[in-house]
Each structure stands twice: as C-alpha cells, then as structure tokens.
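Morning F.,

Quick status update on the modeling queue. The single chain you submitted on Monday has been processed. Sequence for confirmation:
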Amino acid sequence: MSGSTGTTRKPVYLAVYDTLADWEPGHATAQLARAGYEIRTVGPTREPVTTVGGLRIQPDLALDDVRPSDAALLILPGADLWDTSDDLAPFARKAREFLDAGVPVAAICGATAGLAREGLLDDRDHTSAVSFYLAATGYGGGERYVEADAVTDRGLVTAGPTEPVAFAREILRLLKVYDDEAVDAWYRLFHDSDATAYAVLEKAGVL
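Structure tokens below.
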C-alpha cells in the first residue's frame, strides 16, 4: 500500500559522512527500500566515509552532484562532525535548496543543529535531543521548539538521537508510503514491541 507508483517514484538521498551515527537512519532507509524506494548515498565527495561504528561507505554521489529535482527526500543523520567542525555545513545548505524547491528533508540528532545554524528552524516547529542543545547554536527558533519524539513542519522532519523509530514514522507519513493506520501499527511494532500490530501490517501488505 504505497503513496506513489513505482514509475513515478524518485530516489531517497541519504547523506553519509565520517562519524555518521549508524543507528539513526536505519529504520527509515530499510522500510523505504522495502517499499520500493531506491536509497542513494551522498557524501562530501565520492571518497569512502567511515561511520562512528566503523563501517566504511562508498557514496553513490558527491554532494555537488545532487539536485532536489531528482529526489523524493534528503535524509541527514547525526554525526560528531556536526558539532566539532564546519565540515558538514554544505549539507545544511543543500537542505535549504531542497526545502526551497519543495522537496522534503529529514534531519536527526546533530543534523538538527546544522539546520539551526543555517536558519532553517527559525520559522518551523521542530525538535532535537534537548532544547538547550539547539539554543547553543545561537539560532532564532527557540520559541518553535517542541518537546516531542519527532516533528514534521512544512516538509521538514526533525528528531533527537534516541528516536530513530519515530523519525522513520514521520518519514513514512510524509512520503505517504503507507496509510496512517499502517504507519501507526508499524511504529507500535518497532517502538513498543506491540504484537497486535502484526495483523494490521499483514493486512496492509507491509510485512
């Protein structure tokens, strides 16, 4: 039960960079791939990167080669580099390109701080690890901070590092991959280990 057909669906771009937090995008990319989306990795260049868990990833594309018109979504995972250098600032600028073009972006953990520095959270409801983490960036959106597991506002999904399942839930809703009942059941299964969700997911063709 998908929100778009295989003939019109565009790929999802997953940003990858050194110190990427392995656990944060996995639920989203796995479910999107199972639903028929192609996942394409985007690095600073085409050179391999190494995650915080020691996995080496060869990017499919360099950031400079990415165009919003070619994508269904840009996913920005967290990484130590978001807080220790300006190396990932180009990814936040690319997120601005996507949002300006009407193409959604999903950011989790440190990536939310990168978007805050870019000014993308000043006029959108959003969340992150904790409010003071974003406040330390000096951004102007503190009044729009929401205490929630994940937040979607005007094409932008945000979440904190402990909420990869809620992050995926919001992405599945945003792209209309499944109907709301199936997405809610998927969340209950993977977040709450609710076995009663199986029946709903089987009926929807998700499992």
